[in-house]
Amino acid sequence: MSGKIYIGVDLGGTNIKVGICDEDGKLLKTFEGPTGAEHGAEFVLERIAEYCRFIVAESDYEWDQVAGIGAGIAGFMDIPEGFVKLSVNLNWKDVPVKKTLEQKLGKTVTIDNDANVAALGEAWSGAGAGIPNLVCYTLGTGVGGGIVIHGNIYQGFSGMAGELGHMSVVPDLEAIQCNCGQRGCLETVSSATGIVRMAKDAVERGDKTSLTMIQSIEAKDVFDAAKAGDEVALRIVNRAAYYIGRSMAAVAVVMNPQRFIIGGGVSKAGEILFTPIREFFHKYTPEHARDGVDIVPATLGNDAGIVGAAGLNLPRK
Where are the beta strands (DSSP E) in the chain? Predict the structure, then answer.
């Protein structure tokens, strides 16, 4: 088949997902295989190279049609140089991903943070298609984020732009310490981990809630209880939504995006979460910064990282 193709790699601690996208961001083919992180960085990078070549060989395309390869990785990195400075999931420190993969594959390789590439994926062919300026929240074990301006990921001075989960939003008297070392981060209250923590605290206090009947509480249990009318669960969900809405209000007056996209496992809760987020955003955002702005769920699901990684090598606008 004719035309350029782009390969996206979603590198996780357990599995590597690889996909082929066309020039319009359509995901054409995917493959998933084990990471083998316990064998070290060189082993994992060789495995990525093998998976990239394999997926093209199994497709209707030729290797010469590959216009670039992108990789989304959880961790801190030097994006221009293509170094992973630190990835806890992979136990990596100062790994030259770009240089190594380019030598193995003979193609341009670009890396970025996993939350950034998920945002780019949604912007390219997901819930943000056709929207040039947007912000994506990823609500999972933690809270990630990505900022897209004129269709491009905004990385900031040192690649730390879009770390929405580490906005300090909780007042000092209510704040707890975040894994990043700061206190009061959005991640401590609006991630799955934060929601479960608040639920366990409520049970330990003796609050009257159906959650006391659950041996090992998960975030989904809290949302299900809230949907069933459990007042304690509703209070927890509204608190998580409150801080997301307040953080969006702050983002809105700084960069004035047209759309906020919310993805990640927590977003699957649906309107029990989205409705209060929209209400709090509307309440705390100045009129001219909120007019025409919408808050929508992500649409690419688990494929957002692959699609966004593939999009890292699109011609810059």
Answer: 5-11, 15-21, 27-34, 66-73, 76-78, 83-87, 92-96, 109-113, 134-139, 143-149, 152-153, 259-263, 294-297
CB count in 10 Å sphere of residue 239: 18
| Mean pLDDT of the region 222-246 | 98
pLDDT score for 55: 97
- Cβ atoms of 181 and 174 within 8 Å: the answer is no
The CA distances from residue 96 to 11, 38, 99, 111, 266, in Å, are 15, 18, 6, 10, 33
H or E element in which residue 196 lies:
helix 192-205
Confidence of residue 155 (pLDDT cuts 50, 70, 90): confident
State the CATH number of the domain containing residue 40. 3.30.420.40
- Co-location of 233 and 279 in the same domain: yes
The pLDDT of residue 6 is 97
**What's the rounded Cα separation, in Å, for the pair 279 and 267?**
16
- How much is the pLDDT for 75? 84
Q: How many domains, in total, are found in the chain? A: 2
pLDDT per position as a tens digit, 67-112: 999 999 988 888 888 999 988 889 899 999 999 999 999 999 999 9
